[in-house]
Predict the structure.
Amino acid sequence: MSTINIKRVKTSEIELKDRLVSIQRVAKVTKGGRTFSFSAIVVVGDEHGVVGYGLGKAKEVTEAIAKGIDDAKKNLVKVPIINGTVPHEQYGKFSGGFVFIKPAANGTGVIAGGAMRAVLESAGVHNVLAKSKGSSNPHNVVKATVSALSQMRDAVTVAQHRGIELGKVFNG
């Protein structure tokens, strides 16, 4: 399995909004027949650069969603957003899911498919071009998108990491 770089965020001081990405009915076959339960993937974010995803499983739909929200709040990531878009192009991968995220001009909107759109909108990205390749499984697409977003760095972070002035980041 792929690993995801995570910059943790405290949940106590931020207001999070949740979005249901996918819900599935799953079956466990037993001697007495099939036992049905539900699996829900949920994305939470404050729409100002914080996003997280979670998986919840339960016998009831509402319970599965609630568990997913609780799990998502434990896996929050800080995303750099500059003028409503991402700072640079980035590829993300998780298992068979590959995503490509590219900054876009103001007024473009979120050009992305289902699971990616939920993650990007929850993060607060308003203008972005995104493409999902490989697996369309929502689990893999959400995890690949969060992986790509967590790898993004803004110019200030790059300057601090390299130990140089901000102006030299752009001028070489």
Summary: Residues 83 and 106 are 8 Å apart (CA to CA). The two ends are 36 Å apart (CA to CA).
